[in-house]
Amino acid sequence: METDENLIIHDNLTLVAAAGERASMRFLEFFASRIRNRNTRRAYGRAIGAFLAWCEAYGVTSITAVRSLHVAAFIEELTRKRSAPTAKQQLSAIRMLFDWLVVGQVVPVNPAASVRGPSHSVRRGKTPVLDPTEARQLLDAIDVTTPAGLRDRALIGLMIYSFVRVGAALGMKVEDVYVQNRRLWVRLNEKGGKRHEMPCHHNLEGYLHSYLDGCGIAEDCRGPLFRTIGRGTRELTTKPLAQANAYAMIQRRTAAAGIGTKIGNHTFRATGITAYLKNGGTLERAAAMANHASTRTTQLYDRRKDEVTLDEVERILI
């Protein structure tokens, strides 16, 4: 497991250690074996760490002494301080951990099983979206006379035109960009170990060719596709670009392009899906292209109704 995850987990082993060596081993196996996605592991590590720290502060002496009342009180307190989705995610993490401990016969019952999370229903996503003019403005504002510019345009273009999650994009290798039927395709490893392949939009095809050829990495098949820039050299390194660095890059590029919308890594996925649907695409096809298991998830990225709302607001002629 990664260093930051180890710190999150090991800093909160007091209550677990009090239950004995078997409980400690089962607890560590939960993060090492049960959760395979790195981001989920980190999020669940933080959630469980916060819960165990709360329990310790309220006098709980062992993880085997946790009761439904403790879980309910923690979630109630959390709901007053944080958003409903955050509370529901933390409850899910606690529930999954204790399910694992029940199966391992560390605790007899799951104390979180009967605890209800806060009510929360979402029909419209919160992710900020760029309209097509803004997206084009951002792409055109990038200086592509440098390796960093070629890389950044290719990454942003990939997320827009292929509806790719930033994590999947940054996990790609050079060999994941390939030719099939005389067209460039991309191979993605999405959440849950799902492999997903997409043909490239002609604009994206141009961006990727320019990046691979212009930076001389086309032959490094096993190397990371998106790489860091070396300090002092302004050339690509062999190290993969981290998600936090991609976010910082997007903030710089957005500011330089004069775009006022506060956006993040996920904005481009929502921007691409909305543009596709506005131009006659179907929700079912969009779900397949985005590798969503359900069209309900895809609907969260569909922001066409925003324009309808804006038109109606402008009818208030005062």
TrEMBL record:
- Supply one GO BP term: DNA recombination
User: From the UniProt record, which GO molecular function terms apply?
Assistant: DNA binding
Q: What InterPro entries does UniProt report for this protein, alphabetically?
A: CB, DNA_brk_join_enz, Integrase-like_cat_sf, Integrase_catalytic, Integrase_recombinase_N, Integrase_SAM-like_N, Tyrosine_recombinase_XerCD
What Pfam families has UniProt attached to this entry? Phage_int_SAM_1, Phage_integrase
Query: Glycosyltransferase among the record's keywords?
Result: no
Q: Which residues form the Tyr recombinase domain?
A: 125-315
Query: Keywords, A to Z?
Result: DNA integration, DNA recombination, DNA-binding
**PROSITE patterns associated with the record:** CB (PS51900), TYR_RECOMBINASE (PS51898)
Q: Where is the Core-binding (CB) domain?
A: 18-102
Domain of life, per the record? Bacteria
**Family statement drawn from the similarity comment of this UniProt entry:** Belongs to the 'phage' integrase family.
Query: What protein name is recorded for this chain?
Result: Integrase/recombinase
